[in-house]
Amino acid sequence: MMTRLPRRSAWGNAAKVSCKKATAYVNRIGDCTGENEMCDMWKDHFKTLYNSVPDHGARAAFEHKCLTVQDDNP
């Protein structure tokens, strides 16, 4: 059974045992270091993921509509 400690005491103990070097931000994922490399990694990941699903011509239709709207609004 857990001993009932005041909240302040429990959180104080948690702070003492936590890593002093820990930060709130991740600076490395796999081989990527820094926010630019990690951003590029996620961009490439989701680009590959989203482009892996067949769209049955939806992208081409969307691009055609975009060009049509641009042509209608000089």
Helix/strand order: HEEHH
Multimeric state: single chain
Mean pLDDT: 80
In what order do the strands lie side by side in the largest sheet?
Answer: 1-2
Query: Strand content of the residues, in percent?
Result: 5-15%
**Any low-confidence stretches, pLDDT <50, length ≥5?**
none
How many DSSP-defined strands? 2
- Molecular shape: elongated
- How far do the termini sit from each other? 75 Å
Rounded radius of gyration (Å): 25 Å
Give me the secondary-structure category.
Answer: mainly alpha
Q: How does the major sheet shape up?
A: 2 strands, antiparallel
- Helix proportion: 55-70%
Describe the structure in your own words.
The protein has 74 residues and is mainly α. The chain has a domain at 24-51. 58% of the residues lie in helices and 5% in strands. It contains three helices and two strands; from the N terminus they run H-E-E-H-H. It has helices spanning 7-17, 35-51, 58-72; strands at residues 28-29, 32-33. A two-stranded antiparallel ribbon has the order 1-2.
Compile the SSE list and pairings.
Layout: H1 7-17, E1 28-29, E2 32-33, H2 35-51, H3 58-72
Antiparallel strand pairs: 1-2
Short description:
With 74 residues, the chain is mainly alpha-helical. It contains three helices and two strands; from the N terminus they run αββαα.
Throw out a few tags for this protein:
single chain, about 70 residues, mainly alpha, two-stranded antiparallel sheet, 3 helices, 2 strands, elongated
